[in-house]
Amino acid sequence: MSELLRVEDLVKTFPSKKRGVPGFAAVNGVSFTISEGETLGLVGESGCGKTTLGHSVLRLAEPDSGRVFYRGTNILEARDMRPLRKNCR
Ligand SMILES: Nc1ncnc2c1ncn2[C@@H]1O[C@H](COP(=O)(O)OP(=O)(O)OP(=O)(O)O)[C@@H](O)[C@H]1O
Ligand SMILES: [Mg+2]
Questions:
Q1: What is the 2 CA–ligand 2 centroid distance (Å)?
Q2: Where do the domains of the chain lie?
Q3: Which member of 5, 14, 53, 82 has the lowest number of beta carbons within 10 Å of its beta carbon?
Q4: Rounded distance, CA 68 to CA 76, Å?
Q5: 40 CB near ligand 1 (under 6 Å)
Q6: Ligand 1: centre distance to CA 27 (Å)
Q7: Do 42 and 53 form a contact (C-beta atoms < 8 A)?
Q8: What is 3-86's CATH number?
Q9: Which residues, other chains included, contact 58 with Cβ-Cβ below 8 Å and sequence gap of 6+?
Q10: Which mean pLDDT values do the consecutive 10-residue runs of the chain (89 residues) have?
Q11: Are 7 and 15 in contact (CB under 8 A)?
Q12: pTM strictly above 0.85
């Protein structure tokens, strides 16, 4: 089966609200691959970063680092997400 989505070493940190307190990584080095026709379930306790991971993959939140390939295109390097969003199926 061909590769649909590949996530490599994704990191998303949120800054701390208190001065002098470092931010924290809601997503810290997540990697996975989903093939066409495959379903991936993401399970974990409340606050473990599931929604933040989804937002980061869609660029609704900008990740700090890592790579996200959708059908072979690194979407974190795409200047315009609209053509990719139009073509998702
Ligand atoms: N915009 C934000 N600014 C600061 N911290 C955030 C933000 N969004 C999420 N967080 C923090 O990041 C961590 C992960 O949150 P996230 O919402 O991704 O968890 P979740 O696994 O989806 O939880 P749930 O199962 O309750 O939906 C939590 O500590 C949360 O407080
Ligand atoms: Mg959530």
A1: 28
A2: 3-86
A3: 82
A4: 6
A5: no
A6: 9
A7: yes
A8: 3.40.50.300
A9: none
A10: 94 93 94 96 97 95 96 90 81
A11: no
A12: yes
